[in-house]
Amino acid sequence: MRMATGRWVSGEDFFNREDDLVILKQLVGEHNHVLLTGQRRMGKTSVVQELGRQLMEEDWLMFFCDVEGATRPEDVIAELAAATQPVRPISSRVVSRMKRFFGKNVEEISALDFRIKVRAGLDEQNWRRHGEQLFRDCAAQSKRVLLAIDELPVFLKRLLNRDPERGAHRVDEFLSWLRGAVQTLGRRAPVLLISGSIGLQPLVRQLGLSDRINHLYSYRLQPWDRPTSIRCLERLAQGPGMRLQAGVAEEVYNLLGLGVPHHIQSFFARLRDFAAVRQQDHVTVQDVRTVYRTQLLGPSGQIDLAHYESRLREALQSSDYEIALRILAESAIQGVFSHHAQNELARQLPLTVADKVDRITGVLDVLEHDGYLVSGEAGHEFSFQLLKDWFAARFKGHYTPLDDPRS
User: Which stretches in the chain have pLDDT values below 70?
Assistant: First the structure.
C-alpha cells in the first residue's frame, strides 16, 4: 500500500471502503441516483473512482466530471461532454450537432480542445437542449452508464453568489432541469452519482428547494474507527520498512481524535520524513507528539487545515461565515458551543429575533453536515481534535468567550 496525500487512490492503494462499495454498487445497480456525502477529506473522490473502476470491469461505462471551476450551467454541460469524449458514438453525436465549432480533424482533437469547442457552442438559450441530448446519447449506449458529478454543490453556491437577485432562481432552474433530464429517460437514463466538499443538503434547505433533490439517495461516508485507522498506519509503515514502536499508531489516532483518511496519511508522511531527517528506522510515541505539535499544528500544516476554512467560506455567505467562525472559536476554546453561548451570540447579532434564530440554526446545520461539529446534550463540540486544536491556537489570546461577562 503506497502513501497518498492530496490525490485520490484506487486499486491496491484503496483501503477499507469495501463495505461502502458493496452498498454503493447495489444502489447504483438498482438504478438509484446517489448523493454521496461526508465531511472533508473523507475520501469521497477515491470511493467514486474505485466504484467506477469496479463497475467498468463489469461492463459499465463510467464518466467522471469535476465541475468545481464551473460558473454557469453552460460550463457544466461542456464538462459533461468532455467526460464522454473517449466514447466515440457519444462524442461523434456531439460533434455532428455542433460541427461548425469543430474542424475537419475531429479524431485528433484533445480533451481540452473538445471541451473548449463544445463550450463555444453553448449559451443561455441552448444549454438545456444540448444537455438533455447528451443524456439521451448516454441512454442509447448498449452498456449501462454511471455519470459521476463531483463538486456540484460548489458550482451551485457560485451560481447563487454571482447573481444576488436571481441566484436562488438559477439554482432552482438548474436542479429542476437535472432532475427532469434523468426522470424523463426513466431506467434508460445514466445513473447519477453526485458528491462535493461542501454540503448540497444544507444549501437546498436554506433555499427551500429540498424537493429538487428528492430523487437522490443520500449515502454518507463515515470516518474510520480506531482499529481501522491503526491498521492503515501499520500497513503504511510496511512500505518503507519503518518500525512503529508500541503505542505509536494508537497515539496518532488519539491526537487526531477522528479517523479521517487524508489526515492519517498526512500524519504518517510527516512521521516518515521526521525519522528520515534523523536517520531513524523507527518512530516513537514522543516523535508522534513532537510532529503533531510542530508540524501538523505548525506552519507546514497550515495548508491542510486552511482547506477547511476556505471550503467553509465557499459554503456560507460572508455574514454567516463570520457567525461560523465565532461558533468554532467558542467550541475550540471553551470545549463546547453551549446553549447559553448560542443565546448570547443571538443577543449580540444586529438582526431581528427571527433572523437571529434562523441564521444561527442554518450555520450550525452546515457545520454539523460538513463534519466540523457534532451535537450533544451540552451543545455543539468538535469531534476532530486536530481541527479543534488548530482553531484554538488561532483564536486563543484574542477571543472573548461568549459566556464571559466581558463579552
Answer: 1-14, 103-108, 351-354, 403-407
